[in-house]
Amino acid sequence: MRTSVLAMAAGLILAGSLTPARADEKSHRAAAEELLKVSNTEKAMQSAIDQMLALQLKANPQLEPVKDVMRQFLIKHISYAAVKDDLIAIYVAEFTDPELKEITAFYRTPTGKKAVEKLPVMFQKGAELGVKRVQENSAELKRMIEEALRKKGAALEQ
Question: Which DSSP letter does residue 96 get?
Fold first, then answer.
């Protein structure tokens, strides 16, 4: 799904580069970029890269000697600088110019600033909760998979 979103965003960018941008399109893109700035997207994405790398190294300690190579790769392909234009295209496709400005205005309020600060932590805790729940119930998943495979095997034999 992520690939199709990026492909669609790339298509939007390419289509936009073939025709001169109108003033309202420039304003719309500027509003999207401002929202990304106010919501600290660059910092959040850097943190996500750091977390992703740490998780990979924890799961695969043998990758420690190539940690710097992995970091360079992630920065090259998924850092804010690498995907900024794609993100702007996604926001422009999903929100109108006035909606982007309203969201940005919210993020400038004390509650919005708190949301920007707390949401990454909450998403991380939510992801950890999901992993924990799957691990706690992995035996059930294994039984369900085995049962489904048995049923498919029996159906194939008939």
Answer: -
Task: Say if residues 120 and 47 touch (Cβ distance below 8 Å).
Answer: yes
Whether 80 contacts 59, CB under 8 Å = no
The single residue listed with the structure tokens 């695969």 is 60
Which structure tokens are listed for 57?
């190294």
**pTM for this entry:** 0.68
Q: What is the 3-state secondary structure (H, E, C) of 16-29?
A: HHHCCCCHHHHHHH
Q: For the CA atoms of the chain, what is the radius of gyration?
A: 21
Lowest mean pLDDT of 44-48, 136-140, 152-156, name the range: 152-156
Measured between alpha carbons, how far is 119 from 40 in angstroms, rounded to an integer?
11
| Contact of 34 with 88, CB cutoff 8 Å | no
The DSSP 8-state label assigned to residue 20 in this structure reads: P
Which residue type does 5 have? V
* Main-chain phi, psi angles of 126, to 5 degrees: -65, -40
